[in-house]
Design brief:
heterodimer, A: alpha/beta, Nucleotidyltransferase, domain 5, 2 domains, five-stranded mixed beta sheet, 7 helices, globular, B: alpha/beta, 42% helix, 18% strand, ATPase_NBD (chain A), Gcp-like_dom (chain A), tRNA threonylcarbamoyladenosine biosynthesis protein TsaB (chain A)
Chain lengths: 230, 338
């Protein structure tokens, strides 16, 4: 199976091309630059280097969020449009799950996180379950301190990963002490090759209805719903 | 035999997800518009984040429907055209990235189109353009007089210095407690009213083709306020008719003067407010004994659609205009730089 993986859901932009059991091309940056300008040239370049034509792809895989609303829509729009027009399979993978893969040999729990402003986190908990590294607590938008209390109750080491970790490290250490383990600088970028690897193993999804997983409503929509309840 | 040019065009600059297929620049093979208006009504206006989310949901569905209606596949398509700007950036990005994905997947040329150029070129789907021509562009975000010497050349000779005409309509509609979008409601009310209220006309300097609508908007609000203080009631129909008379008179007179002074052959109406019955009627009356040919597109080509992007895209394609894979959505894209 030939697959193209695209991640524009956060600051890290990642493209990978997989062929059968091999990752044959991978491009990754972690820069405050415009995904809309850079991602299509990157897809073009990686596919050209890997000598894979769009029509030869069997599957397209997108990081579906959570993350930047605008960012995630860019990758998802490209992935679903390519999958639809080339009649290829489409798979979406949680952006947090991709980051978590960097700790899959840690042994204990792995907590990937993205800052969600107002002391909130996009996060989840990953670990070994039924012999497989997978989600043990589902992805969510949560107040940081509530989440840390929940992790404290586990009473087991937790590896924290993510490029926004520095903003929260102090508070995590205060709450969890030695229970908290922090990844190093090379452990935080989601790897598009991992996105592709997970995506190849999953069942494809209906293309037309594929949308990002924002994990929260648009602010105007949330306010409107709240006003209806009054 | 020359092969037909088929442009697949995409427009997502605001709250319509639209895809069209245009043959040889002038013939509509499909023109599908998924409007989000029902979703935005509850907010009293377009919410950018909500608009962007709807675009992602609709993009491939609308594209598929357009191809089906036209009875075509991507194999038949010559080039992909897309609105580059102006508009809401998050909304533009969906169309731009979908267009890039389509063009990349099928190895097709990618043609960037200016949204206002699209509105003007909606007229080419009705009749051939005759140069030089003048376009009166009136929409929610734009009020402009555009002079065109030839295809693809745009000179903005007049524009609004404050609110766009459509904005003024929406604000006055809010004063009258009319539901969103306000423009069509005012137009409807005005048809049953008389322009009995004295409201200002902003002519600006004698030689200016520019517009200004913020003074008029304030005058309407003051008129309502003062009447309420005196315990008088104003018929909403009369207020709407008076407001509309002021907007329309300025638009029509400036367009007529610009048409005469620039010796144009044709005057084109363009933009969402071109759906306004009061404006259409006044223009038809004013130009009935003038030498310039007046062209007013049917309603479905006045509001945002992708057929107009295909019409403008065809001309841009023929002139060799291309975008590379770095094409971005540009919210403040300049028309004259096209």
């Amino acid at each position: 199976m030939k697959a193209l993986a695209i991640d524009t859901s956060n600051l890290v932009m990642g493209i990978a091309v997989l062929d059968g059991e091999k990752v044959i091309g991978e491009y990754i940056t972690n820069l405050k630059k415009n995904h809309s300008v850079r991602v299509m040239p990157a897809i073009h370049d990686v596919m050209k280097e890997a000598n894979v034509k769009p029509a030869e792809l069997d599957r397209i895989i997108a990081a579906k969020g959570p993350g930047s609303y605008t960012g995630v829509r860019i990758g998802v729009t490209i992935a679903k449009t390519m999958a639809w027009t080339l009649k290829k399979e489409l798979v979406g993978v949680s952006s947090l799950e991709v980051v978590a893969q960097n700790g899959k040999y840690f042994g204990g729990y792995v907590c990937p996180l993205f800052d969600a402003r107002r002391t909130q986190l996009y996060t989840g908990l990953y670990g070994k379950k039924d012999g497989q590294f997978q989600a043990v607590k589902e992805d969510r938008l949560v107040l940081r301190d509530n989440w840390l209390s929940e992790l404290k109750k586990l009473d087991q080491p937790v590896l924290f990963l993510g490029n926004d970790l520095d903003m929260h490290k102090e508070r995590i250490f205060e709450e969890l002490g030695d229970q908290a383990v922090f990844g190093g600088i090379a452990d935080h970028n989601p790897r598009p090759s991992e996105l592709g690897r997970i995506g190849v193993e999953r069942e494809p999804e209906p293309v037309h209805h594929f949308v990002p997983s924002y994990l929260q409503l648009a602010e105007a929509e949330a306010n409107w719903l709240a006003a209806q309840k009054k | 035999m020359k092969q037909d040019e088929i442009i697949l065009s995409i427009e997502t600059s605001c709250d319509e997800t639209a895809v069209a297929l245009i043959k040889n620049g002038t013939e509509i093979l499909a023109n599908v518009v998924a409007s989000q208006i029902e979703s935005h009504k509850r907010f009293g206006g377009v919410v950018p984040e909500v608009a962007s989310r709807h675009h992602v949901e609709q993009m491939t569905v609308v594209t598929e429907e357009a191809l089906q209606q036209a009875g075509l596949t991507m194999e038949d398509v010559t080039a992909v055209a897309v609105t580059e700007g102006p508009g809401l950036v998050g909304a533009l990005l969906i169309g731009v990235n979908a267009a890039k994905a389509l063009a990349f997947a099928h190895g097709l040329p990618l043609v960037p189109v200016h949204h206002i150029a699209g509105h003007i070129y909606a007229n080419r789907l009705i009749t051939e353009m005759k140069f030089p021509l003048l376009a009166l562009v009136v929409s929610g975000g734009h009020t402009e007089l555009v002079l065109m010497e030839k295809h693809g050349s745009f000179e903005v000779i007049g524009e609004t210095r404050d609110d766009a005409a459509g904005e003024a309509y929406d604000k006055v509609a809010r004063t009258l407690n009319l539901p969103y979008p306000g423009g069509p409601h005012i137009d409807k009310l005005a048809q049953n009213g008389e322009p009995v209220l004295k409201l200002p006309r902003a002519w600006l300097e004698p030689d200016s083709y520019d517009f200004s609508f913020s003074g008029l908007k304030s005058a309407v609000i003051n008129t309502v306020h003062n009447a309420a203080q005196r315990g008088e009631t104003i018929r909403p129909e009369d207020l709407a008719a008076s407001f509309q008379a002021s907007v329309v008179e300025v638009l029509v007179e400036k367009a007529a003067r610009a048409a005469r002074e620039n010796n144009v052959k044709q005057v084109l109406l363009a933009g969402g407010v071109a759906a306004n019955q009061g404006l259409r009627k006044a223009l038809e009356e004013r130009f009935s004994d003038l030498p310039q040919e007046l062209v007013i597109p049917p309603l479905y080509l006045c509001t945002d659609n992708a057929a107009m992007i295909g019409a403008a895209g065809s001309v841009a394609y023929q002139k060799g205009k291309r975008a590379d894979w770095a094409l971005n959505g540009v919210p403040g894209l300049d028309l004259e730089a096209q």
